[in-house]
Design a protein that fits this description.
This protein is α+β, with helices and mostly antiparallel strands. The N and C termini lie far apart (43 Å). It folds into two domains: 115 residues, Jelly Rolls (Sandwich); 147 residues, Jelly Rolls. The longest helix is centred in the middle third of the chain and has 19 residues. The chain has a four-stranded antiparallel beta sheet with strand order 1-8-3-6. A four-stranded antiparallel beta sheet has the order 2-7-4-5, with no helix packed on it. It is built from ten helices and 16 strands.
Length: 302
């Protein structure tokens, strides 16, 4: 590599550091991204990507992009289509350059391979997605994050635990080997009424999937909300590696499946397919919630 090429590569790595989602990545991971991006220039009014396309990520260096339907804009140091690419979905609208714009384009396939081969970067994206979903839960009524669990009475066997885990949104796309490892580490627990499952500011140390019973979720300045069978307590906090933003207390005695956090992270590191499936599921939930691209400025909402 010539000195000019080396200088350009270093410049691109430093440039990538300025984008949300890439700012916490290791330099070695950013160097791989830098090798796969292509700089593109768009005149004002030019179409950057059409509706219903397989998305490529566009990291905006300068200028402004605008969605023709939503009128949402992407400016400097924001990323277009990252969430769609991770969710494996087609583009929802055409996007044009509102003014002359330069971007770094990264093909969705290349982005997927980078995530698969770089666990640190993959973990960073997982944290971002979980935190974004937690933010929307904090501002509107909670809705169940999993399908209703039809757990048989009595002690759950290995297969029963595996089936329950598969109902949990982040794990739904995991392969049987990874889910079996989680199921092996999970245990069925019974917890008395009026037990605090998580308190504001505390760290989640496990994921609890309610099999029987209900719990109340209380946030400052908001009335309590009731969650029941199928709700995963601590899942997004665990995946986002952030403390609880609500106090969660059992109303009556409950039965739950508990998956320790240490076991979860060990399985994610050993089974990249589960981590990638989790990214796909979380990304789809971000889109379904009507949120902006996860790599955009978190203060902006569609």
């Amino acid at each position: 590599m010539s000195s000019t090429d080396t200088h350009t590569a270093v410049e691109r790595v430093l440039t990538l550091r300025q984008f949300p989602g890439f700012d916490e990545a290791d330099l070695s991971e950013l160097a791989i991204v830098a090798e796969n991006v292509v700089e593109e220039t768009f005149e004002a009014g030019a179409e950057v990507i059409g509706i219903g396309r397989s998305p490529s990520l566009h990291l905006v260096l300068e200028g402004k992009l605008v969605g023709q339907t939503s009128r949402h804009t992407w400016g400097q140091h924001e990323v277009l289509n990252a969430t769609e690419a991770m969710a494996g979905r087609r583009t929802r609208e055409a996007v044009i350059a509102e003014v002359p714009t330069r971007t770094l384009r990264l093909a969705a396939k290349d982005f997927a391979e980078i995530l698969e081969d770089n666990f640190g970067f993959l973990s960073n994206v997982r944290r971002m997605l979980a935190r974004r979903l937690l933010a929307v839960d904090a501002t509107r009524p909670l809705t169940p994050s999993v399908d209703e669990v039809d757990a048989p009475p009595g002690v759950l066997g290995m297969v029963d635990r595996l089936i329950v885990l598969r109902t949990l949104m982040p794990f739904a796309k995991g392969r049987i080997e990874a889910l079996a490892a989680l199921a092996q580490a999970a245990e069925e627990v019974r917890i008395p009424a009026q037990t605090v499952l998580g308190a504001i500011g505390e760290s989640a140390t496990s994921v609890l999937i309610l099999l029987d019973g209900t719990a109340s979720v209380t946030r400052p300045g908001a009335p309590p909300q009731i969650v029941g069978v199928g709700r995963a307590i601590g899942a997004l906090e665990m995946l986002g590696e952030v403390p609880f933003t609500a106090t969660i207390r059992t109303l009556g005695a409950i039965r739950a499946l508990r998956c320790p956090g240490a076991a979860l992270f060990d399985v994610l590191e050993d089974h990249t397919d589960l981590a990638l499936g989790m990214i796909e599921s979380l990304s789809g939930s971000v889109l379904d919630a009507g949120l902006v691209d996860v790599f955009a400025d978190t203060s902006r909402v569609n």
